[in-house]
Amino acid sequence: MAKVTYETGGKVGVITIDSPPVNALDKEVLEELSNILDGIEEAIGAVIVKGAGNKAFVAGADIKEFTQMDGEAGEALSRKGQDVFQKLSELRQPTIAVIDGHALGGGLELALACDFRVASQGASLGLPETTLGVIPGYGGTQRLARLVGPGKAKQMIFSAEPLNAEEAYRVGLVEVYVESGAMETAGEWANKIVKRGPVAVQAAKQAINNGLETTLEEGLKIEAAQFGKVFHSEDKNEGVAAFFGKRKPDFKGK
Predict the structure, then answer these.
(1) pLDDT over 90 at 70, yes or no
(2) In what order do the strands lie in the sheet with 116-120?
(3) H/E segment holding residue 83
(4) Helix, strand or coil for residue 19?
(5) Are the beta carbons of 118 and 175 closer than 8 angstroms?
(6) Residue 21: is the preceding peptide bond cis (ω within 30°)?
(7) pTM over 0.90, yes/no
(8) Beta strand pairing call for 163-164 and 124-126
(9) DSSP state, 35?
(10) H/E element holding 120?
């Protein structure tokens, strides 16, 4: 039975991690997730990532896999997880993580690889790896620091203390906090996104992601190049025509 499933409804895709009891990120989950990411259709406009049930979004790596690992095997595991999460991060479609319950260790790193996060009351978010004598290895030291700043990232990683959903929202670790109904809220955001010009949304994602890795001067050049790129699209022509025609645009993603 698959541990990762993928379903579509309209232009929204939903990836579900279903690896009881806490949706642990073992090798099978990483492999299945990677394969699903490779097959997401171009027509999909947004992707939601969630865990099955409400006990855990994803509670981290399978610790049993650590017992027989030496340094070389540990580095290889880290690179494998990083590669899969980088594939998620670079997915052309916007991605939304739905956090119900715990998002710990590799689970939080998975959420960090998404474009933004929706968390419900009772969720717990943290990187507890130092309690095991290891460090986050699936991008946590890098993405968390970029999102909440190096000081907060160091505090969380050094202490291994998790944040509740309210605190995570306050520090910018999650972008949307709800008392309940995180999946429904994520669906609402996804449906807003898929009504926009797909070419423009994807260009904006690329400009933001690539610009963050360089200077402001270079980032502005990246933005200008993406701005020019969308002017070659049919979506741009449709969007402008719809504006002057005072109607809703019918974007085709071309």
Answers:
(1) no
(2) 4-9, 12-17, 46-51, 95-99, 116-120, 176-178
(3) helix 71-89
(4) coil
(5) yes
(6) yes
(7) yes
(8) antiparallel
(9) H
(10) strand 116-120
Q: How many CB atoms lie within 10 A of CB 30?
A: 22
Catalytic residues: 109, 129
Pair of tokens at residue 219? 């980032």
pLDDT of residue 220: 97
Residue type, 126: G
- CA distance linking residue 253 with residue 199, whole number of Å: 6
The one-letter amino acid at 103: A
Helices 27-38, 71-89: inter-axial angle, 10-degree rounding: 30
Residues in the chain: 254
CB-side neighbour CA atoms (13 Å) of 135: 11
pLDDT, tens digit, for every residue of 153-176?
A: 999 999 999 999 999 999 999 999
Token pair, residue 148, equals 């909440």
Half-sphere exposure at residue 193, Cβ-oriented, CA atoms within 13 angstroms: 26
> Tokens for 61?
């790596």
Dihedral (Cα; 15, 16, 19, 20), 10-degree rounding? 170
CB 80 within 8 A of CB 98: no
CA-to-CA dists, residue 242 to 11, 66, 80, 197, 251, angstroms: 21, 56, 45, 12, 10
Q: DSSP secondary-structure letter at 117?
A: E
Q: Pick the closest to residue 145 from 134, 137, 157, 135 (CA basis).
A: 157
